[in-house]
Amino acid sequence: MPRDTPLRRSLTARLLALSALVSLCSIAATAWLAARTTTGAIKQEQTQAIADHTRIYRQLLGYAATHPDWNDAQDTVRQLAAATGQRIVLATPRFEPVIDSAAPAPDPAALPRTPTTIVDPLSVDLAMLPDAPGDRIDARAVGPFRLTPGEYQALRNELEQQADCMRTVLGVDATVTDDLAGRPQLRTANGSVLGRRCATPMVASAPTRTDMAALADLTALANACLARQQLGPVTLSLGPDGAPVSNARPDQPTSACLTNARRQQLVQYVAPPMLLFVGTPADTAGPAPVLTAAHPGRVTEVSAVVLVVTVAVTVTVGLRLSRPLHALTHAARRMADGDLSARVRVTGRNEISGLAAAFNAMAERRGQLEELRKAMVGDIAHELRTPLSNIRGWLEAVEDGVATADRALTGSLLEEAMLLQHLIDDLRDLAAADAGELTLFREPVDVDELLTQVANAHGAQAQASGVTLAVEPAADASEVFADPVRLRQAVGNLVSNAVRYTPAGGTVTLRVRAESDAVLIEVADTGSGIAEADLPLVFERFWRAERSRSRRSGGSGLGLAIVRKIAELHDGGVQVASTPGAGSVFTVRLPLEGAKSGSRELAGRHPGA
Ligand code: ADP
After folding, report:
1. Nearest to 587 by CA among 494, 480, 498
2. Cα 335 to chain center, whole Å?
3. Which residues contact 58 (CB under 8 A, 6 or more apart)?
């Protein structure tokens, strides 16, 4: 961790916070979606299961109400199981399986502890069938009240006649249908009663012979019950829905005795009570599993695991990301503190390693520039020191009376001062060029003419050195778009060097050559030449083959560096070819197109021209 980065601002901490937030949101969203979907599915399943259970119960109750035993119920149970997709098991109240829709030989051990309900037509489960009669005796359990085929037909015929009459005479929509007990009933759409005109001699609601016998039995059973409670006997008749009713007292003991009597009378006609188990085919244990208290715990557990994994991954990634950044920061700080050797290790090929490589390149370049700067300062100090100490030495000698300030001395002092001036001018030019402030004032320049001017300017120097200075006339017109002052300066530097390094009797030749895309200015001499190993160095600042000799002869050590700068500003360059002992040829190349199209510089009169 960098020393001044607070924890909450660190990259790792921010990454951690971000990913924890993202994972919490996704966990919450997933849990919410899962809960919604699961709850919906469970509700649907439960509704379906309740509908299936009711259907199974109603149908088995119907079977029990109309059969004295369960012997033939196997097929009904199988069909119901197939239709609902549920497993159905019927067992005795002592949990002995009698019928199992899934297994031919039911296994008592496989039964769950609680049955779904009890199938008993004489005690209907109101939770399963809320529309059951008040006495909880299934309407389909009729026992001895079941009409003989003859009675049924007679009753039906009579009711059909009445329905016919009602339709035709009274215009009432009347039909005859069997009720739950299997007894035909006359029904009208608007509940209108039988009109007198349609009444038949035989009254439809009058008890049949079967009804009479059953009613008599039932009355005896009910009265015996009432007698046990010291209550008077009652007379029973059939109600409008075919169920027996007491025509005397509709009080509590009477209806209790009547219900008991009915159960007593019906018990031998209906199948015995059975425990009913309904469940999924794989498991008869009961309803489908629902979300229990264990589930929220599990959600918390999974969330915790996800969070731990997220934190671990983020911390690892964060540390991997921030480690090279810390190394970079550390190296940058070292560099700021003056340690130019600070570098970072570059690993991988990602953005951060790209940054590290760029940092190293920058540090390398900064190191080189620093070296250059140090060398420059050293060189400048050195170059200034020699003429200055000469001047000082002579002045001290005059002051001490050792020398006289005669013409020869002042001439020598003037020479040293000019050397200093030359050096400072060259330095200023180079610094301006480095800073991009050396502005060119370009105009069409006749190179032939320019060479003649330079040769004339250096004629005296050449003559004094016994060197022949010649300008070879150009083969064809050679015009460039250049700054004449700077170009004269560059060629002048080359000519000055050539004269300086050519012994008496030698020749310095200036010539111009035109190529298709450039003009070449050559300054050739028959002087000392330059060793091959030194050729790449001659254009460096303050480089000299022989330090003392060239300084003595008036060189600043910056002449060729300035030539190169001026050539480059004209989009050209400078080259040297040399044979030690035979001479050198310096060639300035000025491109024609580049020189004309150069827009960086001003075209016009040179202020110093
Ligand atoms: P100086 O002021 O020393 O001449 P320059 O930059 O002009 O500085 O030249 C650098 C060095 O290149 C010179 O010191 C000299 O050793 C070498 N040099 C330049 N021109 C010539 C030449 N025409 N013949 C031989 N050596 C040369």
Report:
1. 494
2. 38
3. 128, 129
Q: Please, which pLDDT band fits residue 100 given cuts at 50, 70 and 90?
A: confident
Tell me, yes or no, if the pTM score tops 0.90: no
Burial track 178-199 (b if 16+ CB lie within 10 A, e otherwise): eebbebbbbebeeeeebeeebe
Which ligand 1 atom is at minimum distance from the Cα of 544?
14
Q: Which two tokens stand for residue 345?
A: 């290790």
List the structure tokens of 544. Answer: 């000299």
Q: What is the pLDDT of residue 293?
A: 47
Q: Is 266 exposed, middle or buried (0-12, 13-18, 19+ CB in 10 A)?
A: buried
199 CB contacts (<8 Å, ≥6 apart)?
162
Ligand 1, closest atom to CA 557? 8
Residue 478 Cβ < 6 Å to ligand 1: no
- Index of the ligand 1 atom closest to the CA of residue 556: 2
Ligand 1 contact via 530 beta carbon (within 6 Å): yes
Burial of 572 (0-12, 13-18, 19+ CB in 10 A): buried
**Across residues 237-261, what is the average pLDDT?**
78
State whether the beta carbon of 492 lies less than 6 angstroms from ligand 1: no
* pLDDT score recorded for residue 598: 42
Distance between CA atoms of residues 181 and 100, nearest Å: 29
To test the ligand 1 pocket, which listed residue (491, 538, 540, 548) has its Cβ within 8 A of the most ligand atoms?
Answer: 538
154's tokens? 């007679």
Cα–Cα dist 493/483, whole Å: 16
Arithmetic mean of pLDDT, 65-85: 90
Write the residue with the smallest CA distance to atom 7 of ligand 1.
559
Residue 486 neighbours by CB distance under 10 Å = 25
For residue 429 and ligand 1, the question of a CB distance below 6 A is answered with no
Strand order in the sheet with 507-514: 468-471, 507-514, 518-525, 583-591, 573-579
Higher-scoring residue by pLDDT: 143, 283: 143
From atom 25 of ligand 1, which residue's Cα is the shortest distance away? Answer: 529
Question: For residue 545, what is the DSSP state?
Answer: S
d(CA 208, CA 359): 114
- State the Cα–Cα distance between residues 83 and 189, nearest whole angstrom: 34
Q: SS3 of 533, please?
A: helix
**The two structure tokens encoding residue 257:** 């005795």
Q: Is the CB of 506 under 6 A from ligand 1?
A: no
Ligand 1 probe mutation, 496, 500, 501, most atoms within 8 A of CB = 501
Strands 573-579 and 583-591: antiparallel
Q: Of 497, 565, 584, which is best to mutate to test ligand 1, by the most ligand atoms within 8 angstroms of its C-beta? A: 497
